[in-house]
Amino acid sequence: MPSAAPLDSSSTPILAWHSMGAWPDVLDALKVLRNEGKELFVLANGTTRLQLDLVASADLKAAFDMLFSSQLLGSYKPSSEAYLKALELVGRKAEEAVMVACRAYDLRAAKRVGMKTVYVRRWTDDVEEDMEVVERENKGAFLNEGGFRGLPEVIRSFDSQGS
């Protein structure tokens, strides 16, 4: 079997994506949602291999029912096709689903197809966005740093609204 090509410094940042840990507030919130009977899916741009590596390195393998990559779906977010194809594959209507993300463009696209949305603010993302606008766009579902802790409560509020 041939040996792998040596890595040069230009590939290091890309490889780092394959071994990132989860934010500290994520796992507990996902466990609560799983215990409440929620189905949890990843819908992310990138390769399927990247999604598999990320959930493994973040110790989140047991948290998700399915991983959808743009490679697998054949389209990239924020294209409506990506969201609609994932919904079709899991047999759900857009109004039955909630998109949770730390990127406003992602949530705007999810809203366009009829999904409910929750914005989780992270200091690493959306640095160019006006957070007042993003908060208005996600009224009642805008979570600041550490916000995943509040995610189960927001999801329950969607359930109680029946919409």
Coarse shape: globular
Mean pLDDT: 87
Question: Which structural class do the helices and strands define?
Answer: alpha/beta
> Could you name the CATH class?
Alpha Beta
CATH topology: Rossmann fold
Q: Total number of helical segments? A: 8
Can you write the helix and strand succession as a string?
Answer: HHEHEHHEHEHEH
Radius of gyration: 17 Å
CATH architecture identity: 3-Layer(aba) Sandwich
Protein architecture, described:
There is one protein chain. The chain has 163 residues and is an alpha/beta fold. It has a single domain, classed as HAD superfamily/HAD-like (Rossmann fold, 3-Layer(aba) Sandwich), CATH 3.40.50.1000. The protein is 41% helix and 12% strand. It has eight helices and five strands, in the order ααβαβααβαβαβα. It has helices at residues 12-16, 26-35, 48-57, 70-73, 80-90, 104-112, 131-137, 151-161; strands at 41-44, 66-69, 98-101, 116-120, 142-143. Strands 3-4-5 form a three-stranded parallel β-sheet, with helices on both faces. A two-stranded parallel ribbon has the order 1-2. It is globular and about 35 Å long. The model is unreliable at 1-10 (pLDDT under 50).
What topology does this entry show?
Blueprint lengths: L11 H5 L9 H10 L5 E4 L3 H10 L8 E4 H4 L6 H11 L7 E4 L2 H9 L3 E5 L10 H7 L4 E2 L7 H11 L2
Parallel strand pairs: 1-2, 3-4, 4-5
List key phrases describing it.
163 residues, alpha/beta, Rossmann fold, 3-stranded parallel beta sheet, two-stranded parallel sheet, 8 helices, globular, disordered N terminus
